[in-house]
Amino acid sequence: MVRLTVRGVVFSALFAALLVVFSFLRVDVGPVPIVLENIVPLLAGALLGPMYGFFSMLLILVLVAAGVPILGGSGGFSIFLGPSGGYVVGWAVVAWLIGLVLPRLRGARVMTFILGFVVVEVVGVFLEDALGAAWLMHVLHYSLQRTLASGFYIFLPGDTVKALVTTIVWSVVREIYPVTRLVGPAGQSVVKLADESQG
Q1: In Å, how far from its chain's centre is CA 46?
Q2: Which of 31, 116, 163, 193 could make a disulfide contact with 121, Cβ separation 3.0–4.6 Å?
């Protein structure tokens, strides 16, 4: 049974709200714009851990699917079916994977920082952009070369900067507010997602 804490739910909602705000900052360069919002899944996973990082992005996906215009003023299931669909769905995967791996890193501070950056770069940039590019290729019937040019390579410089910023924030915050302190210990449940068995 999954148990949620008040702090975990609140921080998940805050990160979801942050993504909504950031979604209005974008530069149209082709079928998929350059955006700021995709730093939020990286930060959510790094700071909230796998469950709440995923939950924060799940909130976004559910609201978008319900038609709430929260992504730059747009919403609806058409978002998932359009050129940006793979990137948007990938947010939940990225947040979960980053939240799963980063807390397991141990060692000297510099080495942990380097490893943390590698994790965020590989998962939050390469995997995320690969998922998005694959869907872009499917939807628009692009060739592989055109897909890489308009849906992958163009995003790497900016997304790498976001990965670096995320790693810096994570390395500072984790010393003061580790995941369990930020979202609350798992045992302090306030919301139950499944009824306990009776008997």
Answers
A1: 9
A2: 163
Structural domains in the chain, CATH included, are 3-179 (1.10.1760.20)
Q: Give the residue among 30, 23, 16, 32 at the shortest CA–CA distance from 131.
A: 32
Over the chain (199 residues), the average pLDDT of each successive run of 10 is 84 97 95 97 97 97 97 95 97 98 92 97 98 98 97 97 98 87 65 48
**Residue 114, number of CB atoms within 10 A of its CB:** 14
Kindly list the distances between the CA atom of residue 5 and the CA atoms of 2, 182, 189, in Å, as whole numbers in the listed order. Answer: 10, 10, 5
Angstrom distance (rounded) from CA 190 to CA 21: 28
What backbone phi and psi angles, to 5 degrees, belong to 26?
Answer: -150, 155
| Interaxial angle between packed helices 156-176 and 39-65, expressed in degrees from 0 to 180 and rounded to the nearest 10 | 100
Question: What is the CA angle 98-104-109, rounded to 5?
Answer: 100
